[in-house]
Amino acid sequence: MSVSGLSTVRLARMREVLTGHVERGDLPGLVTLVARRGEVHVEAIGSTETGGGGPMRRDSIFRIASVTKQITAAAAMILIEECRLRLDDPVDELLPELADRKVLRRPDGPLDDTVPAHRPITPRDLLTFRMGIGAVMAQPGEYPIQRAMDDAGLAPGPQAAPIEPDEWMKRLGDLPLVHQPGEKWMYHTGSDVLGVLMARATGRPLEELLKERLFEPLGMKDTGFHVPADKLDRLTASYRPDPGTGALVLDDDPRRSRWGRPPAFPSAGGGLVSTADDLLAFCTMMLNKGRYGGQRILSRPSVELMTTDQLTEGQKAENAVFFGGGSGWGLGVNVITRRNDLPAVPGRFGWNGGTGTSVYTDPAEELIGILLTQRHMTSPMPPAVIRDFWTCAYQAIDD
Questions:
Q1: Phi, psi of 350 (to 5 degrees)
Q2: Residues 337, 196 contacting (CB under 8 angstroms)
Q3: Residue 107 and residue 176 in contact, taking contact as beta carbons nearer than 8 Å
Q4: Closest residue by Cα to residue 31 from 66, 57, 64, 6
Q5: Which residue among 88, 179, 280, 348 is buried most deeply as judged by most CB within 10 Å?
Q6: What is the rounded CA–CA span in Å between residue 47 and residue 53?
Q7: Which interval of the chain is the signal sequence (predicted)?
Q8: Full-prediction pTM beyond 0.90?
Q9: Are 312 and 265 contacting, i.e. CB atoms less than 8 angstroms apart?
Q10: Alpha helices of 82-205 — where are they, by DSSP H?
Q11: Quick check: 319 pLDDT over 60?
């Protein structure tokens, strides 16, 4: 047995299982990383594109989608520690577009049938996704508010809106909230608003802020909202499955990538690209309760607050498709609360990304797991390759 308490024989099982997904054509390639007690095990399997491309590499760059959320939440906590933001202060001064909100009487009602908001929106609401607006879990276009969000370019999805942050906020401010602030959990939009709030609070573009406070101190040299020209050869292709056949359809070609230039709207909810080793650095800091190397990035109390479930049982029950009866939401991260599956260790935290990524940190087992793939998810339920990765990571524990 190794110092890490991970079985090399059982880690080989992981490679075998995940190679099967590639060989069956589920996806062209993937990178996995499992770290425990200072030992790091990496697999780069398959190729960067279907039917060709180069071999997948440890330093291949992926669009990490909603894995972005935990990174930007950590940056927000840095600003809260500096008292530039306060968890329970109204955001109205920095985000006047969200002042004096109107709230729909019914989520499926007409946009002009509203009541005044009971209270202002706060940074806590943004971090816990209880600001009152976000992904509406109904059939596409079923509710007027869904159609309005789609028409305004505000609907959650894998592509960042091609509009500047100020215009994005203006469009959001033109819409009513779906629920009262603090009342319900609604996915995603809070993170994007949080990114605008952080930029305005510091007077800095969001990417500059993240680079200064997180990426440079952690050595995350390949993480950002776009891929510089000299690194585009490491950007993998991105695919979505055809709804009818399941065949992979090219969504973003690395040679003509949307990520080849800075976006109009840097999405704090899903816009970053990164690598396995950059994400390992971030997760190591979080596992070490805010410390990385000789530096303190966040305080221990901040990390503990972020990774503590903040939702009521009712809020989680209404979102069972996300929480499954065994987890909740902290400040920007999913938090496991109940032992009901092999990797479901209470206190484990992280999140999945809709482009086929999964990154979690487990303080109890001292384990970090990172899976980067190129196949978009089609529902909040993780696909087989993500479920198999986590099963294989935890069955490899040998102590």
A1: 155, -150
A2: no
A3: no
A4: 57
A5: 348
A6: 6
A7: none
A8: yes
A9: no
A10: 123-128, 144-151, 165-173, 189-202
A11: yes
